[in-house]
Design goal:
The protein is built from 15 helices and 2 strands. Strands 1-2 form a two-stranded antiparallel ribbon. The protein has one domain: Orthogonal Bundle (Ammonium transporter fold), CATH 1.10.3430. It is mainly alpha-helical.
């Protein structure tokens, strides 16, 4: 009999396709094909790197693990699986289902940085960076949270509620991908012409709002599968609870999108389509952690806060911190994902073991900021020393479609130029 998680996992590629379309639409037309090509290549590289190395480090709950003892208590810090997923029972075993899901989840995490680094990140370097994420960064945090590792053990070892809870990957997928996006934005610097000599940001609008909004709908379908499969495999909920998971996912995305639309309507006299799309996806990202444990009213609140955070976070990063993030990946996935982890600690309902759940969540967030972010930055900084990641100024001016792929996405139409941007 087919495990119900298998059918849910089949929807996850729609989330990957949705984010690829969003990233493409939010960039300029001369880079559109490059973004889609990059999404395909990064998905392939991440899947292969995870197959060879990543799953060996991540493992799954109940599988072999590497332990260290602190104050007499076992801390599982990494999986101990063979390379190439060798020896795994492929007859619908829990380990096989986790491996199949993780191949897709690590691909989803790996394309998130494309949104922040688009229009200036070389394809080859992008693939190398994705390999590092899939082989090292993602599986180490994934084991701690989903592989029966030390974050999941905080409840058993220290009485912190259920231990770190992240059913659908607000931390493991969204925050890991978003913090890697922040690392790349720092390393690459802003796009050519984004800031004036006085440091003021220039508006560089995306080229296709229809791509962006269609991407939101595809991402919604994908997240229904992602959150449902995660709740079954990592939070061990009953199949009947998937109704709540799906409802919470939808309510969080919808309330976040509406909140962002209202904020932009009040501030700019009209709702902004691209920011509303980012708000929608931020609601999805925030919904994942507590999708199986938050009541519908809590999901509504989670989405509203995520939608309110996004436009102000994007503005702060761009205007105050001079971080150029064309796709809003940092605000949507890193900040939205971290808010989702906080929300499950505040709003989650776990029965008698609710006590100190918020602290377990904050330990996980501290790990993301204190370990995952420095690790992602350090790995990509070293990679940049050997394989320069930023495209040349001429390639940026020409567009990465022509400079790296040899053909534009829209060869029969006039594309945007830089004639109005400062030199």
């Amino acid at each position: 009999m087919t495990h119900p998680a298998f059918l849910m996992i089949l929807l996850i590629p729609l989330a990957i396709a949705g984010l690829a379309l969003i990233n493409s639409g939010l960039g300029r037309s001369r880079n559109a094909a490059h973004v889609m090509m990059s999404s395909l290549c990064v998905t392939a590289v991440a899947a292969i790197a995870y197959l060879i190395f990543g799953f060996a480090w991540q493992g799954f709950a109940g599988g072999p693990a590497r332990l260290m003892y602190i104050s007499g208590r076992p801390w599982s810090w990494a999986g101990a699986q063979p390379l190439f997923m060798a020896g795994l029972d492929w007859n619908a075993s829990p380990g096989a289902l986790v491996a199949w899901m993780q191949i897709l989840c690590v691909a989803l995490a790996a394309i998130i940085p494309i949104g922040a680094a688009t229009e200036r990140w070389r394809l080859g370097a992008m693939c190398a960076s994705a390999a590092l994420l899939a082989a090292i960064t993602y599986p180490l945090f994934g084991h701690a949270a989903w592989g029966g590792g030390w974050l999941a053990q905080l409840g058993a070892n220290y009485g912190l509620g259920q231990g770190f809870v992240d059913s659908g990957g607000s931390g493991v997928i969204q925050a890991v991908g978003g913090l890697t996006a922040l690392s790349m934005a720092w390393i690459l610097g802003p796009r050519r012409g984004k800031y004036t000599a006085e440091g003021m940001p220039m508006a560089i609008p995306g080229h296709n709002a229809v791509f962006v909004l269609l991407g939101c709908l595809l991402a919604w379908f994908g997240w229904l599968g992602l959150n449902s499969a995660g709740a079954l495999l990592f939070s061990n909920v009953a199949v009947g609870r998937l109704v709540l998971v799906s409802l919470n996912t939808t309510v969080a995305a919808g309330s976040a999108g509406l909140a962002t639309a209202i904020v932009t309507r009040v501030r700019f006299s009209r709702p902004d389509a691209s920011l509303t799309a980012n708000g929608w996806v931020a609601g999805l990202a925030a919904s994942s952690a507590g999708c199986a444990f938050v009541p519908p009213a809590g999901a509504l609140l989670t989405g509203l806060v995520a939608g309110l955070l996004v436009p102000f976070a994007i503005e702060t990063l761009e205007l105050r911190l001079s971080i150029d993030d064309p796709g809003g990946a940092i605000s949507v996935h890193a900040i939205g994902g971290i808010w989702g982890l906080i929300a499950v600690g505040i709003l989650g309902r776990f029965g008698p073991s609710d006590s100190w759940q918020w602290l377990a969540q904050f330990v996980g967030i501290a790990t993301l900021l204190g370990f995952v972010l420095p690790l992602a930055y350090g790995l990509n900084w070293v990679l940049n020393r050997f394989l320069p990641q930023r495209a040349t100024p001429e390639a940026e001016r020409q567009g990465l479609d022509l400079s790296e792929l040899g053909a534009g996405a829209y060869p029969e139409f006039m594309t945007h130029t830089d004639e109005f941007l400062p030199r």
